[in-house]
Design brief:
alpha+beta, Beta-Lactamase, 3 domains, six-stranded antiparallel beta sheet, 17 strands
Length: 408
């Protein structure tokens, strides 16, 4: 089966790519002339897709069985030259292999010429057929080829018009994106990494006029540049996509040389990077505040408590401090256990209350939890403890880590 190239430089002549009625009306004079020159009742132009020839336009007899027969011959035929003439179908192996005896009565003559793209690959065919057997003179064959060249030129014109229309649609979409985005939107050239365009959001967020940044390297306005001398394109090629895009928090430098955190979403199309940057400075400051609070908490509990632990809530992994043996008598190897290990050591009379209090605290929005209960030592006796906890939560408020401080 012949299949056309669908790469840039070859025509993409799938029928639904065109305004069919307009295209067919443009092709009708070519088809009519082909029928007259070749003394044939029917002519057609087909284009190739992955399934074979598909009829684009036809003239004369529009019987679908006849058109199907012509397309099957075209699909199976080997065009050793730029024209193929079959004047005796009953003696031709292509016809006899593709058509039944009844169908061969419909086609007693067939001729065709390929429509080639600029790379020389056939993308379709101009074909004529008739129910009466006859031949074509050299002059008729040449004229059919000339008509084929005209049809190819017309199809190529429509192909280029269609491509240009799609590019214009994209440009309009890019323009709307730049104009209406509430965030900063950059368009960056792949190879050079230079800013091709940026919307007015950059004035509000970073204090630049859009024209101030056009032509500059995107990396010029990044603090602690992660690209490290490489182009944006080279750096992104080593990153993993997240839902079809690249996401990276970056510190962007404003016109006063101050840096603020932005969540940058990178997408690529048509040799360009599209970067949407959303201000996440407050989020970053909050995250840093949590880190500092945790560090302060750990320092405080070291000097004011007897034993500390850290519980990973989702996995249940529990890590005790080095004081475990001195305070409760358990061997050093018991420092890394799980949540059930702790539950098993709580006095049976306190157990239900502790589990209830933990569940209630975890389900709330509080980051603090206080428990009082009895815990079993390694020797089997119980000690009263006061247990203060800090609950570290994610953005959705779900508990991630619980840091506990026990006072005997």
């Amino acid at each position: 089966m012949k299949t056309p190239s669908d790469t840039i430089g070859d025509m993409d002549l799938t029928p639904d790519e065109f305004t069919r009625d307009e295209l067919q009306s443009r092709l009708q004079p070519i088809l009519e002339r082909a029928s007259v020159i070749c003394d044939s009742k029917m002519s057609l132009i087909n284009v190739l897709d992955e399934t074979g020839p598909q009829t684009l336009a036809a003239y004369g007899d529009d019987d679908q069985q006849l058109i199907s027969c012509v397309n099957r011959i075209t699909d199976a035929a080997k065009y050793e030259r730029d024209i193929l003439v079959i004047s005796k179908p009953d003696d031709h192996p292509v016809v006899t292999s593709q058509l039944s005896e009844e169908e061969r009565q419909l086609i007693r003559f067939y001729a065709g010429t390929p429509l080639k793209s600029v790379s020389g690959k056939p993308v379709g065919y101009l074909c004529v057929s008739d129910s009466s057997s006859h031949d074509l003179s050299d002059d008729q064959q040449k004229q059919l080829q000339v008509l084929g060249d005209g049809a190819r030129a017309l199809l190529e014109l429509y192909d280029q018009t269609n491509r240009l229309s799609k590019k214009n649609e994209k440009l309009n979409l890019y323009s709307l994106l730049l104009k209406n985005s509430a965030d900063i939107t950059f368009i960056i050239e792949h190879d050079s990494g230079r800013i091709m365009d940026v919307n007015s959001g950059v004035e509000k967020e970073l204090g630049y006029q859009p024209d101030d940044l056009k032509g500059r390297l995107f990396t010029d306005i990044i603090k602690s540049n992660p690209f490290e001398g490489h182009s944006v394109d080279a750096w992104m090629s080593s990153m993993e996509k997240n839902r079809g895009r690249y996401v990276k928090p970056l510190q962007l430098i404003d016109h006063q040389q101050n840096a603020s955190w932005f969540q940058c979403n990178f997408t690529t199309e048509d040799g360009r990077w599209f970067v949407t940057a959303s201000d996440i400075s407050e989020k970053k400051e909050a995250e840093q505040g949590v880190v500092e609070l945790k560090e302060k908490f750990k320092k405080v509990v070291k000097v004011s408590t007897d034993l500390i632990y850290e519980l990973e809530w989702n996995s249940g992994d529990l890590a005790w401090g080095d004081e475990l043996t001195a305070v409760l008598g358990y061997p050093h190897e018991d420092r890394f256990v799980d949540y059930d290990w702790w539950i098993d050591k709580i006095h049976p009379e306190d157990l239900d209350r502790v589990i209830h209090d933990v569940a209630e605290s975890v389900d709330s929005e509080s980051d603090k939890m206080k428990l009082i209960y009895r815990i079993r030592t390694y020797e089997g006796s119980y000690k009263y403890v006061m247990n203060n906890n800090y609950v570290d939560r994610d953005e959705e408020g779900k508990p991630q880590t619980i840091i506990g401080a026990i006072v005997i």
